[in-house]
Amino acid sequence: MKTIIVASGLALLMSICLAAKDSCVTCHQALEGVQSDPVRKYASDIHKRHGFSCADCHGGDPQRDEAEAAMSPARGFRGKISRMAVPQLCARCHSDARLMHKYNPRQRVDQLAQYLTSNHGKRLAAGDTAVANCVDCHGIHDIRTTKDPLSPAHPLRLPETCARCHSDKARMEKYKLSATVLADYQMSVHWKALAVRGDLSAPSCASCHGNHGAAPPHVGEVAAVCGTCHVMMEDLYRGSPHKPIFDGMGVAGCVACHENHAVMHPTPKLLNSESGICATCHDAESVGGRTAGSMAKLIGELSSEIDRSGAILDRARRSGMEVSPALLRQIEAQEQLVKARVAVHAFRVDAVGAPVKEGLRITRETNAAGLAALEELGRRRTGLLFSLAAIGLTILGLWLWIRNFERKKRSLTAPGANSGSGDDLGG
Amino acid sequence: MEVKARISAAGQWLDERLGLGPVREFLAHKTVPKHSATVWYYFGGITLFLFGVQVATGMLLLLYYRPTSTEAYESVQFIVAEVQFGWLIRSIHSWAANLMMLTAFIHMFSVVFLHAYRRPREVTWLSGIALLGLTMAFGFSGYLLPWNTTSFFATRIGTDMAASMPVLGEALARFLRGGDDIGGATLTRFFGFHVAILPGITTALILVHLALVQRHGISTPLRVERQHQGAGAQVSQIPFAPNFLVRELMAWYGTLGVLGCLAAFFPWELGDKADPFAPAPAGIRPEWYFLAPFYTLKLIPSHVWVIEGQVIGLLGFGLLAAWWVMLPFWATARDGVLRVRLVTGAGVALIAYVATFSFLGYTR
Fold this sequence. Notes:
The complex is a heterodimer. Helix content of chain A is 60%, strand content 0%. By secondary structure, chain A is mainly alpha-helical. The longest helix of chain A has 64 residues, at 349-412. Chain A is flat. The N and C termini of chain A lie far apart (112 Å). The model of chain A is unreliable at 13-18 and 417-427 (pLDDT under 50). Helix content of chain B is 70%, strand content 3%. In chain B, helix 6 packs antiparallel against helix 9 (184-216) and helix 12 packs across helix 15 (340-363). The mean pLDDT of chain B is 92. The A-B interface holds A 319-325, 380-381, 383-384, 387-388, 391-392, 394-395, 398-399, 401-402, 405-406, 418-420, 422-426 and B 31, 34, 77, 80-81, 87-88, 91, 233-239, 242-243, 246-247, 249-250, 253-254, 256-257, 260-261, 264-270.
């Protein structure tokens, strides 16, 4: 019985040792330079955390100690994966819904299908191995989840990751693509929102082009792409007179006025009938030019009224006046300004006029509230002046009275009688 | 003449019914020592005056204040923005609280440096220190009542500090909060402490403190006493009423003027409404009179050997407070000689510590 227990224990120990054995790691970590890189990098790889080993991608038999046996094609060894084979290799697991569900129930499994529709995927299928595949964006042996800030596919790092190829002028020339996209994007409001404000929901490359199915949106699709975030603008644009005209000209609606990568913060200057973007198509005296000028004037008027009442309220607030209800109303005026800016996409003066009118009505209220607060502040200070005068006079009166009282008392007291008598009258 | 006769008749009428004769007699004979440091005697009275201001303005605020987490902020906002002179009452209440803390500290240190705690005034000192503690408790409980962001998170820091005390810390923090975290229950509790429990205890203790001051009279500084003893003379005195009382009244009026200026030029800000789910804003710190211990605790490492740094800090403060409370007892040597230099040195060191660490806590 004792022998059986010992034998069972030894068998268990051996099986644990064999299961843990990985000759790929053992050998490669003893090597130098690039040969040991995979082992070093793999320590931080998400696949390692989930129990995947080198052999799961590269094949072979990690239980064998001899290199020839471990890396034998007969044992399924694939060696270095060719660039052509990478998408299919990753898809063996990543397109397997049942397997992926084990690690993340909401994990998508359409990456390969998407990739095959992308320009990258199509060109790779055509034999162009210079285009991006999975490892170019996600890394090779140190793959992390896209939520990990160290991942090259993390939203904050994605623009630089795409730019590794798309800012390479020599590489882009081959495809007749601009290599200034990153520089352009870094001038945009989207970049500021992402990199300066740290808003991870701000659009970067993948938001407009797709990630695995990356492709440039066609002219007709641009409004739909922008409209995924700018819903109201898209709706108004689709109903505007510009839509059929731009479609007919083969011009992408949003891009015509706002650019594609270098999307700047829109100001009323954009609508200026002489120097604004509208002036590129409309003469200042044309209907379009006059409409643009009127919309710019309306928006400018509301904007400056908001600034004016805001400055008055801020002065009152800094003086310690309670103007928070007016400051809340000021936010409502700001909302009307946003609505007016959105309404520009209908390209009608009346559409812009309605929120401007409401906004101006609110600013009149907030302006009056701010001025009333400043008037009240003045009254308080005048009141304080009178109170201080009354207090000062009272103190003076008390001082004169006590001085007079003490003088009288002293004159009634015999000289020398106050020394140590216990009723020294002071003064 | 007619008026004087009527006042005299009214006084007589009251005297017959209230028996004010002994009080008048007491006031007629009560005196105050007169010397170069007499000015420090006024601070006890100014502190008392500010307590009166707090009671009066607090009662007015109670007419509109609502002590619930959903209504507290809005009710203070209403007081400040809508109620006639509400801004003035609220601002004076807040400023008077801070001035009261300042004058209470000045009063305490004047007692230390004039050595007024010495025999037979040990109990007067103890009641005064208890009143200082109650004033701080007033400040701590009242700070939360507007339910704004700063007060909410500062109170969380304060109760967290209480929670880290060994043995009873958790229970004390839970008692203060009325739960695991700051919430509506904490506000209601603090309101109860602030408007009922603390005023009741404080009023009783003020009466005890004043009774003891009357019992033992106003102390003459040791230096002045020795000078006069050396010259074989008695210390000069001035009658309490009206000579000292009128001067005290002038100081009260002056304080009222300062309060008015502060309220008009620096109205106490209300800030933003507390959001318990929002992260604590950067640079949050307690009121100025808690800054020195707050900054000291920040400097202590998280662990010293196996003991938590905060626990060590709180134990240190506990010992320091106990040592300070017992000042009249260790200030006198067994042979009855007062350790003047030790007490003065300790007072200077304490002021230097509080001033330096408060400054650092405010600026860093």
